[in-house]
Amino acid sequence: MYFDMDEIEPRVKAGDYKWNEKGERVESFSSSCEIRSVLESQCLHLRSNCPREINRVILTGGASHNTDIRQMIGDVFGRDVYTAPVADSAAQGGAKRARYVHNMPDVPYSAYFTPNLTLIARPIQENRS
Length: 129
Fold this sequence. Notes:
This protein is of the alpha+beta class. The chain has 4 helices and 5 strands. It has helices at 31-48, 67-77, 89-103, 109-112; strands spanning 2-3, 15-16, 57-59, 81-83, 118-121. The strands form 2 sheets. A 3-stranded mixed β-sheet has the order 3-4-5. Strands 1-2 form a two-stranded antiparallel ribbon. Strand 3 (57-59), helix 2 and strand 4 (81-83) form a beta-alpha-beta unit. The longest helix has 18 residues, at 31-48. It is globular.
């Protein structure tokens, strides 16, 4: 895990925290492993901050075009990954989320907003161990 600043949740001091597959602390990884570790660390941090269980992940922007990143996100979250076929979909998604919060309907967001989504990755169970 990589933390540029002290983190509140989980409570941890800034620093790089690395373990091998046996759970032993290590000082460094190979360059390719280091790059993947940074990305996986960000995905794990996002997952740890989810307020509840989610049933899908919707990617927008650059990440939605990178096959490796979208697969990694699917594996970390253990959920199917989708993208919306809309230019500037991040801005549109933010506006729809704001409308949902403002209206406070009695249905979950996934039922309130069901865009035309395209499945772009499915979690691979072997990658989740």
